[in-house]
Amino acid sequence: MISRRQALIGGTAALMLPLPARPAAPEYRLSPQQVADGVWLIEGARDSFGPRNGGAICNIVMLATHAGAIVIDTGGTARHGAALRRFADQKLGGVAASFNTHHHPDHWFGNQAFADRPIHVLPMTARLQAGNAQALSDGLYRILGGWMSGTAPLPGNPLPAGDGFGAGGRDLRLLALSGHSQADLALVDRATGTLIAGDLLFLDRAPSFPDADADMWRASLDLLAGLPASGIVPGHGPFARDSRAFVQTRAYLDGFHDRMARAADLGLAPSEALAAGPMPDFVGLGANPEEYRRAVIQRWRDFEDQALPLIGGSV
Amino acid sequence: MTLFLCHMLDSGAAGLAAYGGGAAPLAGKGEDPFDSGMWDLHRAEYLGDPAGWQADRGMRVLAPRAAEDPAHVPVIVDATDVQGQVRRIVVTIDYSPLPLALVFHPGRAKPVLGFGVKYEIAGPIRATALADGVPARMGGAFVDAMGGGCTAPAAAHARPDWQEGFGQMRGRLWPATGRLRVSIRHPMDTGLADGIPAHHLTGLRLLDGQGDLIASVDLHEPIEENPALTFTLPPDLAAGPVRIEARDTNGYSFAGEVTA
């Protein structure tokens, strides 16, 4: 039997048929690949947040252990996190623990699906997650729509001091760094020598700069480059056994800095620097020109104050 | 012809072209290319309902497609290709609670002005050039925005002493291109943020070495905190010096001078 309410809804829906309805968000399709012994990479789309990728844009790493997977970053939405959790449960014997490399939402908005196990973050990351959750969530609901349904950001728990972590016979070296954001966690799987760099490294995808400190970032890259690594997982982009991600990330940082310093020193307005587009060598990177345009707005004032001397004040 | 300087960066000319050059979408005579509800009202209220107005792709407006930071949306307008001697450029934001951003009187400067605005909600920003004996010419750009720019407190109020550095003026003159850029440390309070009364710059003037007026801008609430303005001067004036004077709603005055 159809209730009056259902009939009304049905009637309304029929009336509204000619209008294009926003389709329900499709399922997340994961393509996990084993890049080293027991090291699973679920690569993100090399793009910005958008309705086509559902926010699944950052790389997720799962390390197989006897006690279940160690999960590094949990995805960009609750549903993305749930899909990742299903993979861990079905193929890797559940979850031992999770990490969020930093506080940008593509790396931790899937935490809900991992909340029954410890979720470790750097202390500063925990503060930034709590402080920015609402604003980040508002922004993503607006961009991703239905993909975000059910997502309620859940900050991680601050890690105690120390540079090691072990579970189920697998040992990790933890490196507390910064530069891409105020707190960036990089991890090394001791068994395979795989470096999981978080967003300190990008490859074939334009780096993002909302919280960047270029000098700190370069110092972190110097430190990471000094580690012996058999393979590198960047925060965004493909797994590589060579140093391309270091070369490209450094070149992008330097190229962007030079372009902004030059624009400000030549008297360009920020809107002109934005419209001029990315550095020619980096036009074709994933997520460009969008990331370049965002970065101009985020970082312009750093350069403008350098270019404009003090000439007066209140009289 | 445009006086935008994008071409001074590597492949910037191609970048500007790919960006659309700042031209508004195509529209028929007397049609609004943005098909937006507020234009009729704003045209009546802020432009005096000019007869024969037209959308004009020569009235260029460069703005980001997405605001990224609703408190600082950078814009530059260039009316070089608008027919006639441009006397005023009026900048309005369609769905802002305070739609009038500024009125630029180019005077002896080129009809080019860079500035930043706050955005409360996604919508078009428009620049309309009023020239002698020519119907009003409107250009614009659609800016997607999360909003909150006009009703959020200025960042300065998060600091223990917002007056620190208040009024500080930075600036520079580039004689080769005629560029003049000036920034003033000012909260630009709209009066819409809880418990913070309106306090914003109302006007800024450029004066030549003899103290004669070059150009002026009437500034309103939507202008960004710590605003930076970009002008372009003809070669004789670009040799400097140029004196910059500004005033705000609380009676403060600000002044500085740039030389070549």
From TrEMBL, chain A:
Q: Which residues form the signal peptide?
A: none
For the Metallo-beta-lactamase domain, which residue ranges apply? 57-236
InterPro entries the record matches: Metallo-B-lactamas, NDM-1-like, RibonucZ/Hydroxyglut_hydro, SoxH-rel_PQQ_1
The cross-references to Gene3D superfamilies, in alphabetical order and at most eight, read: Ribonuclease Z/Hydroxyacylglutathione hydrolase-like
Would you say which domain of life the source belongs to?
A: Bacteria
The family note in this entry says: Belongs to the metallo-beta-lactamase superfamily. Class-B beta-lactamase family.
* Protein's recorded name: Quinoprotein relay system zinc metallohydrolase 1
* Lineage start: Bacteria, Pseudomonadati, Pseudomonadota, Alphaproteobacteria, Rhodobacterales
